Amino acid sequence: MVLVGNKIDLTRDVTTDEGKLLADSFKIPFFETSAKTDEGINECIRKIIKDIISDFKPHDEAIKLEAKPDVKKKCMC
Predict the structure, then answer these.
(1) What is residue 76's DSSP assignment?
(2) Where are the alpha helices (DSSP H) in 15-76?
(3) Which residues contact 11 (CB under 8 A, 6 or more apart)?
(4) pTM check: above 0.85
(5) How far apart, in whole angstroms, are the C-alpha atoms of residue 48 and residue 44?
(6) Among 6, 3, 5, 40, which Cα is nearest to 23's?
(7) What is the pLDDT of residues 23-53, one digit of tens each?
(8) Is the pLDDT of residue 63 over 80?
């Protein structure tokens, strides 16, 4: 979980310090972003992906994908 302050390119109702304090109270990362200028987007997404990957633990009963044998279709010409 992360806390994201969006629209940082506009006038703010919540300060950076307030966002950080709230994120700290939940012990989660805080990011400020702007979809308009792309600021902070990559860093936020990278953190989320990194956390998902680090928390992923494959199960013993994982689905195994196997290549299907070539199946020749018969033409009814």
Answers:
(1) -
(2) 16-26, 41-55
(3) none
(4) no
(5) 6
(6) 3
(7) 999 999 999 999 999 999 999 999 999 988 8
(8) no
